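Worked problem 6 (solution included).
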Amino acid sequence: MRRAWNAWRWLWIVLAIPATMAAGQPIKLGELNSYKTFPAFLEPYRKGMELVIEEINRGGGLLGRQVELVIRDDNGNAGDAVRVAEELITREKADILIGTFSSAVGLAVADLAKQRRVLFIRYTFRLRPSTYMQTAMLIPDAAKLGKRRWAIVYPDYEYGKSATAAFKQQMIALQAGVEFVEIGVPLGKIDAGPVVQAMQDAKPDAIFSSLFAVDLAKFVREGEVRGLFKGRPVFNLLGGEPEYLDPLKDEAPAGWYVTGYPWSAIATPEHKRFLDAYQGKYKDYPRQGSVVGYSAVMSAAAAIRKARSTSTEKLVDAMQGLAVDTP
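Solution. The predicted structure is:
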């Protein structure tokens, strides 16, 4: 899949940092993420990064230098993320920062960029599709159903709020008279029984959810037990990603509308090469996180090759409009 880079704010950010290029010293990629908080996504993500770095170094590295990955856990906390980002910048002398899972954490790191006047918006690039874009993938099917009353459940932080706003905005543009009932839940702490009951009481015609990970699993189980999904179309923003679908096993709902990563059905040459390499190294199939980690490092490497430098300004210029053939 060919990706073009655009300047953006947060989520899978790549931040260029001023660094003195020294012959023979490795190019350091500083990576911060919520490994303990979201292991289902981020352990495959780590494997994807390690795979592509191994491939790069086996091929001679970048600019004649080996690539080194320095990883820190931000604990899914904005304050910790700022602290470890500072550590990667000042102590580890990272050439490029990549990472962040949660939008709240990504925004905090982007704010640090602004404060430091080194890592400003100009120095932040987004890899994954935006929440608006992912929502737009589901909207044509949602609007086609002509359902009037929608119940929306979302994790109550930036990502969930953005997904809800995007869904409402796009549905209103396509369908007159549509109504919404919204329920926000604390990230990772859904009390599924009362949430499902409240949605049933709202008597919706259809459901839109941006829940993921443990919240999604609990919602699915409780919704099935109470019959919430019976006779109602359900749209879930991330429900087709293996990280969140596979743990449900036989409880995985049938007939939902989702975005995701059907790793066994993608037949492009780039994906086949990645799939063979990943399965050969790890004896396991890739997840969405695997592709994101691999693609993040691929993109950083492509920028360094194009810039022929780790200089901040040269990297920023190189990444503007950069296209990369990712899996």
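Discussion: The radius of gyration is 21 Å.
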